[in-house]
Amino acid sequence: MGFLKGGADSRKGKNAALMNLFSAWVQRWATQWPAGTTVLDLACGSGRHANPLAAMGLQVTGVDRDPLALAALGPTVRALQADLEDTHWPLLGQQFDAVLVTNYLWRPHWPELMRCVRDWYVHETFAVGQELLGRPKNPDFLLKPGELLQVCQQAGLQVVAYEDGVVNGSRVQRVAARRRRSESRLHWPLLESPVPQNSEP
């Protein structure tokens, strides 16, 4: 919790505020990851998820092309400035226990991204139909019906949960998948975890 300062009450309050910024979908799965889990937050922005994940004791790498956004990341987050839409993949040869993507889609690098997944893959972003509700409207940034399921299947991931619908006025698709297929009950994912009522997608 290196980036949280102040007394116990202050830390508790700030931590609660950070958790309220979470996507409910992300929090549903991230709360199951033990301390020390390595997490890639792709197109992390100013740390909506990277900072609270780091506060939970996870080892987070946040990647974004905006240096001003990266400057808002906590000191325990490993920040990497890179253009994820460049032909060069900045994470070549790296793997993470969990890969997180929210409100971002760039199909050309999907194969490289899947090779970064050691265990968990959590993705939530806009889907076809969003153009009728607001931005984005460009089909390049909108998931096609069942597209996340298809990507997980092609990568050999086991889908734990998948949803396709409207969340807080936005048309989204979201998936949680795992590479490991252990029969040990220690690795069974919890399908329900407490989430804050005022969390957002």
Structural features, described:
By secondary structure, the protein is α/β, with parallel strands linked by helices. It has a single domain (8-187), classed as Rossmann fold (3-Layer(aba) Sandwich), CATH 3.40.50. The protein has helices at residues 8-20, 24-30, 50-55, 67-70, 110-115, 147-154; strands at 38-42, 59-64, 78-81, 96-102, 117-126, 158-167, 170-178. Helix 5 links the parallel strand 4 (96-102) and strand 5. It is globular. The model is unreliable at 1-19 and 194-199 (pLDDT under 50).
Name the CATH superfamily assignment. Answer: Vaccinia Virus protein VP39
Q: Which CATH class is shown?
A: Alpha Beta
**What would the CATH topology be?**
Rossmann fold
**Average residue-wise pLDDT:** 84
Spatial strand sequence of the major β-sheet? 3-2-1-4-5-7-6
Which CATH architecture?
A: 3-Layer(aba) Sandwich
Unreliably modeled segments:
1-19, 194-199
Could you say which overall geometry the principal axes of the C-alpha atoms support?
globular
Number of beta strands: 7
Strand composition percent? 25-35%
Labels describing this entry:
6 helices; alpha/beta; 201 residues; Rossmann fold; disordered N terminus; 7 strands; seven-stranded mixed sheet
Sum this structure up briefly:
The chain is of the alpha/beta class and 201 residues long.
List the helices and strands and how they pair.
Layout: H1 8-20, H2 24-30, E1 38-42, H3 50-55, E2 59-64, H4 67-70, E3 78-81, E4 96-102, H5 110-115, E5 117-126, H6 147-154, E6 158-167, E7 170-178
Parallel strand pairs: 1-2, 1-4, 2-3, 4-5
Antiparallel strand pairs: 5-7, 6-7
